[in-house]
Amino acid sequence: MKPRPRILIAVAGFVALLAVAIVAIGTAAGPARRIADAGTPGAVSLAPGPRLLARSLAADSRDHLISVATPDTGGGRTVSTTSCVRLYAAAGTGICLRLDGGLRTFEAVVLGPDLDPRRTLPLVGVPNRAQVSPSGRMVTWTVFVTGDSYNGGHFSTRVGILDTRTGELVSTLEDWSVLVDDKPYEAADLNFWGVTFTRDDGHFYATMSTAGRRRLVHGDLATRTLRTVRENVECPSLSPDGTRLAFKSAVDGDPRHGWRLSVLDLAGGTVTPLAETRSVDDQATWVDARTVAYALPRGRGHADVWHVPADGSGVPRLVIPDADSPVALAPPEAPEERAAT
Q1: Phi and psi of 294, rounded to 5°?
Q2: 289 within a domain of the structure (yes/no)
Q3: Residue 175, domain member (yes or no)
Q4: Contact 109, 82 (CB under 8 A)
Q5: Average model confidence (pLDDT) across the chain
Q6: Which pLDDT score, from 0 to 100, does residue 37 have?
Q7: I want to staple 136 with a disulfide (CB 3.0 to 4.6 A). Which of 43, 91, 101, 123 is the partner?
Q8: Residue 236 in contact with residue 247, Cβ under 8 Å?
Q9: Residue 110 falls within a domain, yes or no?
Q10: Position 25 confidence tier, pLDDT thresholds 50, 70, 90
């Protein structure tokens, strides 16, 4: 097995997330504000439709999946009995990263349209990211792992990818072939996180860290090859039409300064900083072809879901208080439909 190095950026950015994942944290003090009620118990479906799915962080429904109608996200929420630390869904398939019963270990559960478990896999770390391909066939997750003797107790990351049709499991990307600037590259300190799939189910984008640098990589599942695309791109999220990536980048190249949310045009290479200027330590999701959503922390153990236009205009808008891990369940617009609007 290839050694896994320390990733200093993980320490700076994700301590709060790890605390939330490991234990249930009570209501924290914060600015006086109206927080939405926990919601109404009911059936939550992953079937495509005009809804947002998220994880509740409200005190009496913490970690439960919630469904909120769109575009009127200020309305009531439906609360499921299913609980997750991180979740994602597309085309009726969901991935739920959760505690394994009463143990302090975690598992990845593939869900069907009615949240029925289809397959369960043990996880070897603390959940951090999750995504599903647009077709619902491919699911992926990222976890933090510790305990390697050489990394000084810092965090490393590990990616898993599951083909729900064939059952084939990729347990790590660290043994794949890597091309940096089109040249073969080998190193002991390769780490990967934040996968997002293309529409063909055979390719994806992700973040790679090595030698203190973070790069966007393009992955090919058939050849098990990763090719670098651009530096300082983390947690990419591919747009519905496959032409743009929402991502976070370290301010001034230093994660200690926070992260800026932007959109990369894959054809021309143009980067558009979005109107959200607060530090976004999340893998954003596309609500539609014009809008991305993300979670922002609010005090210890709490967060809210916001969204912002993907073209750099407008202002951030609060859409789901006391929630994180947002997912848009509406089917993606076809490119010709987007062009007509």
Answers
A1: -165, 165
A2: yes
A3: yes
A4: no
A5: 85
A6: 44
A7: 91
A8: yes
A9: yes
A10: very low
Q: What residues have CB less than 8 Å from 166, skipping those under 6 apart?
A: none
Task: Assign residue 236 the CATH number of its domain.
Answer: 2.120.10.30
pTM of the model: 0.85
Q: Which residues contact 119 (CB under 8 A, 6 or more apart)?
A: 109, 110, 162, 164, 167
Q: Give the chain's domain count.
A: 1
SS3 annotation, 8-58: HHHHHHHHHHHHHHHCCCCCCCCCCCCCCCCCEECCCCCCCCCEEEEEECC
Instruction: Read off the amino acid at residue 198.
Output: T
Residue 30 forms part of a structural domain: no
Instruction: Give the pair of three-digit tokens for residue 188.
Output: 């002991």
Rounded Cα distance between 77 and 116, Å, is 20
Residue 161: which of 190, 185, 192 has the closest Cα?
A: 192
Closest CA to 126 of 82, 157, 170, 89: 157
- Give the distance between the most distant pair of CA atoms in the chain: 56
Q: How far apart, in whole angstroms, are the C-alpha atoms of residue 93 and residue 112? A: 5
Ordered DSSP codes for 58-98 = SGGGTTEEEEEESS-TTS-EEEEEEE-SEEEEETTEEEEEE
- 89-92's contacts with Cβ under 8 Å and 24+ in sequence apart are 89/46, 89/53, 89/132, 89/327, 89/329, 90/132, 90/133, 90/134, 90/135, 90/136, 90/327, 91/48, 91/132, 91/134, 91/135, 91/136, 91/331, 92/46, 92/47, 92/48, 92/136
Domain that holds residue 142: 8-21+39-340
